[in-house]
Amino acid sequence: xxxxxxxxxxxxxxxxxxxxxxxxxxxxxxxxxxxxxxxxxxxxxxxxxxxxxxxxxxxxxxxxxxxxxxxxxxxxxxxxxxxxxxxxxxxxxxxxxxxxxxxxxxxxxxxxxxxxxxxxxxxxxxxxxxxxxxxxxxxxxxxxxxxxxxxxxxxxxxxxxxxxxxxxxxxxxxxxxxxxxxxxxxxxxxxxxxxxxxxxxxxxxxxxxxxxxxxxxxxxxxxxxxxxxxxxxxxxxxxxxxxxxxxxxxxxxxxxxxxxxxxxxxxxxxxxxxxxxxxxxxxxxxxxxxxxxxxxxxxxxxxxxxxxxxxxxxxxxxxxxxxxxxxxxxxxxxxxxxxxxxxxxxxxxxxxxxxxxxxxxxxxxxxxxxxxxxxxxxxxxxxxxxxxxxxxxxxxxxxxxxxxxxxxxxxxxxxxxxxxxxxxxxxxxxxxxxxxxxxxxxxxxxxx
Length: 448
Ligand code: HEM
Fold this sequence. Notes:
Blueprint: H1 2-5, H2 9-20, E1 23-28, E2 31-36, H3 39-48, H4 60-65, H5 84-99, E3 106-107, H6 108-125, H7 132-143, H8 151-154, H9 159-164, H10 166-194, H11 209-215, H12 228-259, H13 261-275, H14 283-286, H15 290-302, E4 312-313, E5 318-320, E6 323-325, E7 330-333, H16 335-339, H17 383-400, E8 401-404, E9 418-420, E10 424-426, E11 431-436, H18 440-447
Helix pairs in contact: 5-6, 5-17, 5-18, 6-12, 7-10, 12-15, 12-17
């Protein structure tokens, strides 16, 4: 659909909502769909009728990559603090690499992707898989089919076409490659837990996400059991939901900062004032950086990485605003459109972090005009982990380096075109030239 109309779905839905209103019934292909584009109706769906809309539709992507939608049976754990050494190490590695490229053009987007996925993998799987880079590229390719707008998602009764659809065969192949990597990760954990050192079981403090999943694998005695497919789908979920969203947010934030040098300078002043004495960033103090936090909030408002949240589907009929919503209606909530609605935001299309400095608006699902993490019982369970994974890398990038655009490019010319997948990234990779500000601690760590 989006290719035909030349815009991305969240943009098309906003234009339609401007014309036909914020609670719109559409038939997309054969699928009855309600598109919600106002905080009042978002609240109706995600608070008043939360239970009815807590299901997700079974799309082609979810059926194949998520093992018939057997993922997310429960929220992942969020021992955010305990992953601090992992974050520090990965980010120091990234700083070292950037320091060795000072004055040269680098593909910052690619490096951010790698290190964010590195943090997620090490937190979730104990270490980076030996097939880390391949796993990232499989994920990237498969996510382009995840938005739920494939032919077969829109015409479910024509499933004979589905069987020969190029999307299905591509996804099947990607799944086979991903499965091999995921099975290796599981196998390594099973072996590790068999080792004599681990006799008596992995200690709770060192158990990673996969260890926790394996404890619930096929064990009814714990009152809750996961099948092999559940375990594999959950590993996939964490890798994609955890890494991709954070990397996309950092990338947009850096692009906005490069386009707005005054804001970049203000952020660097805040960060450098605090860390200059130490000569390095300290995670414990990043939580007090008010301006940096406002930058992250503003980035999530303008560039919500999951602009249409994840689709939902009604499990029984209900009434909203005098309309009867039948069972199995798909619900699309346009968080991106609400985040840019002039009714709620002054200068909605401008990047102004100051708007959040003295504002009580947060993204925990209470202010429905601002829901980059969703709301209700399907709200993102990874908010804290996601936020620190964005704030900390930004603090490192802004503390240690100044940033210039290559080839004499002007900051206002930076292309902010969006690219569709289930997350919305910038179409172009961010190529920048790092200039050293204070890299003494990175150089020291290089030396040994
Ligand atoms: C900047 C970072 C992130 C953003 C913007 C984000 C955004 C979202 C959004 C919009 C949803 C859908 C919510 C809804 O439908 O109401 C979601 C779901 C989810 N997120 Fe995140 N997320 C981020 C980071 C993370 C991280 C770090 C993890 C895990 C470690 C994670 C795990 C999940 C999972 C498992 C779901 C599915 C929840 C469910 O269906 O019940 N996310 N996220």
